[in-house]
Amino acid sequence: MKPGGLSGTPSHTAYHPRWYRERVSTYWWLWKWRYLKFVLRELSSVPVAYFVTLTLVQVHALSDGPQAYADFQRWMTHPVFLTLNAISFLFVLFHTVTWFNLAPRAIVVRLRGKRVPEFLIAGSNYAAWLVISAAVAWLILRS
Amino acid sequence: MAETIKLEVTRYAPERHQAPTSQSFEVPYRKDWVVLDALNYIKDNLDGSLSYRWSCRMGICGSCGMMVNGEPKLTCATFLSKYAPGPVRVEPLRYFPVVRDLIIEMTDFMAKLRSVKPWIIREEEKPLSEGEYLQTPEQLDTYKQFSMCINCMLCYAACPVYGLDPLFSGPAAIALAQRYNLDSRDQGAEERMGILSQHAGIWGCTFVGECTRVCPKHVDPAGAIQQYKLTAAKEWFKSLLMPWGAK
Q1: CATH for B78
Q2: How many domains would you assign to chain B?
Q3: How far B57 CA lies from chain A's nearest CA (Å)?
């Protein structure tokens, strides 16, 4: 007998009844909103990768001169890109917020023997996000 | 007539059943009754053949973990009133093989727990004459949370990674390994690293976080695993930068 093995048809053997083991459904993550949220968080890495690629394409277009960059900007106004970017942005936002909220679980900082409270760890992440976003916005919008 | 509540309890007798089925019982509804009280009522008054584990009735022994309405719960700490007017679905802990009715097979967990060496490892023991290994309150505080684990396995029943990959060491075992890694008296961190820093160890975890949510003792196994991931990554970088400085 294989302990813990998958057995579709359990049956009784003398002195050692076979255990019943349920198979995990492929759609286990649809059962509960919390599991679905987890899967969405994992999937959000795809839009993150998409935005990284898009930024690289943008930089490439910039290095190819004004005409190439104007073309790039024109593509970005296409409804397909507008929709794709809007959805991706929401996913990236979701990714960022869930990531920052989970950060205090992984990062333990001790000051004078006491653990720094979780909201301060998460808060410092949000603060850094705000400062860096503001700096980038200033860099782009100053002209 | 006294108020009652319906319990839908999983029944499985391997000598008779091909697969588990559900059986309904009407039990008295009392505000001060927990799910375990209802199961004891069934066993004492309605069907003595119902099998389930329990012992202390006070959230310490970790025996009475079951799925209550699809959530892993200690049945001794889960009040019927939370589910009124019912029905209350009671099933064996998810992802474990079922032996009979509500009893699961836990050998896998026990083997995993043992594999991470959850005990104090010393390179060399101090002679008895030198007395105890002393610890400051701060040193105790670093691992105390993880030492509250009662091995109830609710975190395994909440972890889809364990369900999908039975090789995964799992939340409680890793949290308990971390409990000893953080203990100032312990010197076994390196020994445990080899076991924990594998795919089936910490890297199998995708941080679903459900283990922490269902833990009745607020152990935070998900936190323990992520913290250990940081430690393992730091150790790896260190060994990469200073291969000669290996401990």
Answers
A1: 3.10.20.30
A2: 2
A3: 27
Residues B41 and B146 reside in one and the same domain: no
Type of residue at B213 = R
User: Which range marks the domain in which residue B217 is found?
Assistant: 107-245
B interface test, pick of A9, A20, A36, A37 with most B CB neighbours within 10 Å: A20
Complete DSSP assignment for A44-94: THHHHHHHHHHHHHHHHHHHT-HHHHHHHHHHHTSHHHHHHHHHHHHHHHH
**Domains in chain A, ordered, with CATH?**
33-141 (1.20.1300.10)
Residues 95-154 of B with CB under 8 A from A: 95, 97-100, 105, 107-108, 138, 141-142
Q: Which residue of A has its CA nearest to B162?
A: A24
Please report the pLDDT score of residue B1 as a whole number: 52
Residues B129 and B87 in one domain: no
Q: Are residues B235 and B131 in the same domain?
A: yes
Q: What is the ipTM of this complex?
A: 0.82
- Could you say which residues of chain A have pLDDT below 50? 1-8, 10
Task: List the one residue out of A97, A106, A123, A103 whose CA is nearest residue A44.
Answer: A97
Residue B86: predicted pLDDT: 82
